[in-house]
Every structure is written in structure tokens, then in C-alpha cells.
Amino acid sequence: MWCDSMGWIEIFLDGISEAFGLILSSDAEILGIAALSLKVSMIATLLGAAFGVPLGFLIASRSFYGRSLTIAVINTFMGIPPVVVGLAVYLLLSSSGPLGFLSILYTPQAMILAQTLLTFPVVCGLTVSSILALDQRLKETLQSLSAPKLWEAFILLRESRIGLITAVIAAFGAAISEVGAIMMVGGNILGYTRALTTAIMLYTNTGEFALAIALGIILLLLSFGVNLALTILQMRYRKKR
Predict the structure, then answer these.
(1) In angstroms, rounded to a whole number, what is the distance separating the alpha carbons of residues 124 and 210?
(2) 198 neighbors 183 (Cβ within 8 angstroms)
(3) Domain-embedded: residue 33
(4) Residue 6 placed within a domain
């Protein structure tokens, strides 16, 4: 038992050493994998926010028949298993699917599409929660002033900006840590669609634990860097309130 524990400690330490060695040596393959992961996740997060924030605002700020059901559906999709999304996108983009003519299966574009479908409900759901949590008196004041709809929307979104940044942070975290969906639609092709998460899974399955740990550390550092920037922005807005 002791020997086994020492063996895993040694593997973990080798992984840390190899991680910093790969970073310092600017290994082209690792940089390419890391760059693809960051690119795909950031684009998917931005697309998810571009669609999720407006829709979330409309749902939260308008009364309509079935709103509670709509919110329940969005909240359900916030926790949808990524492999289900991957399966849906695969069927859409396969040669016999309705979008097969695009010929983007096993490409970064397919990975972005899958991750966008994962980030969209996260952003939308958290936007709804942020808008609904605003002081009702603010909404009533804007309505009493007969403020233009666009100005009213700007004020409400501005007041809920901390929640919106939280939504983006949560969406990015879901995107960059995802593996099942992008494996299904991206194929884990070296130099083209291999991301950090899929590479970690591959190296773990082949017994290259030190390299898998190294990539895991790089993934954590990337995620930490982006989330730190967003958190600093969030805290600055909080201080201004």
C-alpha cells in the first residue's frame, strides 16, 4: 500500500515537472492543443452569451403565458449531459443529417457548435435569475417614467451586470472543461481537433499519466487565468455599486 502511494506521488510530481517543462519549452504540439481549447471555449462562450443574454432578458422582463414552464425548461437544459448534446450535434451534422451539407463534422466548427449549445442555456438561465432578482421598484420606476424600451433594457442589464459576468464565468467553465461532446463531434484529431480535455483522456487511457497530469495543470492554469480576469472585472463593478 505504501509503495503504491509513493508511486502515485512520484507520477504526480513528474506530471508537475513535465507541465512546467512543456510550458517553458514552448512545445509546439502542446501550445496548439492549448490554443485550440482556449479558442473553441471562448468563441462558444461569446456565442452563448450573444444569444443567451437577450433571450434571458426578454423572458425575465416580459409576462407571457407559459413563462414558468419556459424557465423550467431552460433550467433543465443548464444541466443537460454533454454527451446528449454531442449526440444531437453529431446527428445534425452527419452525412445523413439535415445539416450534413455543411461538411463540418470532425472540425473545430462542430466543436464550437456543441459547446455553444452547452453554454447558451447556462447564460440564459443565469440572466433570467439576475433580472428577476432586481429590485421591483427599479422596474416600476422605469415604467412610470415611460422610458424607451431600449433604455429600460440598458438600465436593467447594467444593474444586473454582476450576475451577467457570473453567467459568463459559469459558461466558460462548462465549455473549457467539456470532453464528451467535443470528442463525439471533433474526433480528437491531432493537430486539428485535439483539445486539452480530449488529450488528457487519451493519455490517461494509454497510461501516460505524467503527460496527462501536465496537460491537466495547463488546463487549470488557462481556466484560472480567464476566470481571474472575469472575477476582477466582477469585483470592480461590485465596488462601484
Answers:
(1) 38
(2) yes
(3) no
(4) no
pTM: 0.87
Dihedral angle over CA of 211, 214, 219, 220, nearest 10:
150
Tally of domains within the chain: 1
Please give the pLDDT value at position 2: 41
Cα gap 188→160, rounded to integer Å: 38
pLDDT tens figures, 177-216: 999 899 999 998 988 999 999 999 998 888 877 778 888 8
131-157 pLDDT tens trace: 988 877 776 676 666 667 788 788 888
- The range of the structural domain enclosing residue 127 comes to 40-240
| Domain containing residue 183: CATH number | 1.10.3720.10
Of 8, 32, 11, give the one whose Cα is nearest residue 211: 11
pLDDT of residue 1: 43
